[in-house]
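PROTEIN DESIGN WORKSHEET
SECTION A - STRUCTURE
LENGTH: 501
TOKENS:
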């Protein structure tokens, strides 16, 4: 096989005279649970994962051309080394290794943070995956300040949504007095949100898109927070337009959002790499991967009879996938369950309750059980909504929300998915886990209370041992995921009865 390599911006172009052999390096077949419309059920079937974006076969010359994202450069350098020239091999290596890099530690960072940030600066692209509470936002702000002020680079910050943007902008300002311009692509330090970007007028209108394309093409560095949640039409549009950038560095607490694993080329295109191929094509593999070591965890299972009188029909007991919303709403709006949650709020101060996108449940909790009884900080797409003991409602800024928590003015923090990631609230120690099956949800929500030396992870369980549709299986999966992620931490299992609350 003969293979030649060209690099055009953020795209690798491979030409070969042996398409079949090259495809064996660029495709992998694996078992995956998919919905089969023919059988009207979910089945384990063979699925072919392709890491290339496009393929052109030139019949006259018998050559084929494949296009891949620059993030695959290290993988290609490894598997194609016997088939490419030394010059092409060095093209791949130089595309991912920094021409020069800093060796002097940064002030204001811990030793391990400096070890990691100086390591990732040896590369032009890579994933920085660390546990919540590590200080990831501080590292991103440090890199932004370094690139803008010391290197004179134009830096683009990208977050999945406004809450993560708020936290990052706040950190840059408070620590470095660095002004981040939101949405201003003509500035030297800009922040954009990926969610909804592809639908915004400036990217849909041809005349405005031309301007944005020109502006985005001038950025040198791209720093992305909570990167796994930017892999969507909006995020991929932004990445594709940042054609002049030579540094693509991405940060997350769980870049592999479905399993929380390290994304590595050590085993080729394994299951973890395959399911994250759309992330890898821009940022490559994990260069830094740290798991938590020092946290003390109490896994508290509260045995209750509140589940006993909830009735489920046959469809709800037979399927987990199609009845999720109905079952979860039925469980968590049951009066007996709601009263147990109130007891937990009394027992465990500043209780954080992530509820994903089940906003109707939060509404029933607040209006039927919390208002006038507890001081509530609701985190949702509308922002930070505070309810005092008289039921008065105030909309807070992020700084004000942090001050309220720090000042002991909050009893319970229900949150939709808007508050799952990238928010650094002080003094939280208690979380009630009721939902979530993927690492990007479970680990990130647990991470909101994993910023001190101890956290209580609280779950409710039927005293009778009754299996609850959706919830019982989800609880088991969440427990296994947390045990794996926090396996190097000190952990204890505690069972308490509702009567002792």
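SECTION B - SEQUENCE
RESIDUE ASSIGNMENT:
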């Amino acid at each position: 096989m003969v293979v030649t390599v060209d690099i055009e911006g953020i795209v690798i172009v491979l030409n070969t005279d042996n398409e079949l052999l090259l495809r064996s390096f660029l495709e992998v077949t694996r078992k995956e649970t998919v919905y089969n419309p023919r059988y009207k059920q979910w089945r384990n079937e063979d699925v072919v994962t392709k890491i290339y974006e496009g393929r052109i076969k030139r019949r006259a010359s018998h050559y084929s051309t494949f296009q891949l994202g620059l993030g695959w450069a290290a993988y290609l350098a490894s598997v194609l080394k016997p088939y490419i020239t030394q010059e092409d091999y060095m093209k791949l290596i130089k595309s991912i290794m920094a021409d020069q890099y800093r060796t002097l530690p940064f002030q204001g960072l811990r030793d391990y943070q400096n070890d990691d940030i100086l390591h990732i600066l040896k590369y032009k692209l890579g994933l920085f995956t660390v546990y919540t509470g590590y200080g990831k936002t501080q590292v991103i702000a440090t890199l932004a300040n370094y690139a803008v002020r010391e290197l004179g680079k134009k830096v683009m910050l990208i977050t999945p949504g406004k809450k993560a943007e708020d936290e990052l902008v706040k950190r840059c300002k408070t620590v470095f007095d660095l002004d981040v311009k939101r949405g201003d692509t003509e500035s030297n330090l800009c922040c954009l949100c990926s969610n909804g970007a592809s639908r915004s007028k400036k990217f849909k209108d041809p005349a405005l898109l031309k301007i944005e394309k020109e502006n985005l093409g001038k950025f040198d560095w791209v720093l992305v927070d909570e990167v796994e949640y930017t892999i969507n039409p909006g995020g991929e549009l932004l990445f594709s337009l940042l054609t002049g950038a030579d540094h693509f560095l991405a940060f997350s607490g769980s870049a592999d959002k479905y399993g929380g694993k390290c994304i590595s080329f050590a085993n080729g295109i394994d299951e973890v790499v395959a399911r994250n191929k759309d992330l890898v094509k821009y940022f490559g593999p994990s260069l830094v991967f740290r798991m938590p070591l020092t946290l003390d965890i109490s896994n508290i299972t509260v045995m209750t009879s509140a589940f006993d009188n909830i009735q489920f029909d046959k469809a709800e007991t037979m399927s987990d996938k199609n009845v999720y919303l109905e079952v979860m709403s039925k469980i968590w709006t049951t009066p007996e369950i709601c009263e147990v949650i109130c007891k937990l709020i009394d027992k465990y101060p500043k209780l954080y309750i992530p509820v994903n996108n089940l906003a109707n449940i939060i509404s029933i909790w607040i209006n039927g059980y919390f208002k006038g009884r507890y001081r509530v900080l609701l985190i949702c797409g509308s922002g930070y909504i505070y309810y005092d003991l008289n039921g008065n409602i105030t909309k807070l800024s992020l700084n004000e929300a942090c001050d309220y928590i720090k000042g002991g003015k909050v009893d319970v923090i229900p949150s939709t998915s808007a508050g799952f990631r990238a928010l650094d609230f002080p003094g939280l120690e208690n979380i009630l886990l009721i939902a979530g099956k993927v690492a990007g949800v479970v680990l990130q929500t647990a991470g909101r209370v994993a910023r001190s030396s101890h956290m209580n992870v609280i779950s409710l369980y039927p005293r009778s041992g009754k299996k609850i549709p959706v919830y019982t299986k989800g609880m088991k999966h969440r427990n296994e995921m947390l045990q794996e992620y926090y396996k190097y931490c000190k952990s204890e299992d505690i069972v308490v009865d509702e009567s002792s609350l």
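SECTION C - NOTES
The longest strand covers residues 27-36.
The radius of gyration is 25 Å.
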